[in-house]
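step: validate -> pass
step: tokenize input -> pass
step: predict -> running
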Amino acid sequence: MERCVYIISGMSGSALTNTASLLASRFEKAVHLRGDIFKRMIVSGREDMTAQPSEEALRQMFVRLHLAADAAVTYYKNGFHVILQEEYTETELTRLQGLLKGVPVKTVVLCAGEALKRERELFFRKITCLEMPDEKLYGKIAMPADEKTFFLDVTTFSPESAVDYILGHFDCMEEEQHRMRKEDRE
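step: predict -> pass
step: emit ->
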């Protein structure tokens, strides 16, 4: 499989860490880069994202995205598969994908079924004290899928089987793209 940067995102509680760690372990040379490390490095003056983020919270989020992208590209250019894991919003994910131009990127958004998603959302709202209407919170992780991005409902998958599915999905996509290029040349 082609070396690349995998972005593993999704809602809290969707086995992001386990899935990303297991995915990294499948490659001979890989890095599990946790995007939240850049947030935790801010020891004072940190402003977290909220439903109505301040200018400072937005600025810090952009700094964290740039740091994550720079680290991912550096590891990639030094021969590593990179598995970048974080709970990115649609806006953050789109910006991060833009910052990773020039390296192959495959994005997986881990989701849970509607009932689990609502349950986790309510829990998430209690923990972070975000007062976001349901449709706004759902909108934060919803984005159209393309050939390099897909959503995986993990309610019926163990982290191990989710990794198998992720690798199988992208293998099939690469085979299909190869077949289409071959047909175009003929």
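step: describe -> The longest helix spans residues 159-185.
step: cleanup -> pass
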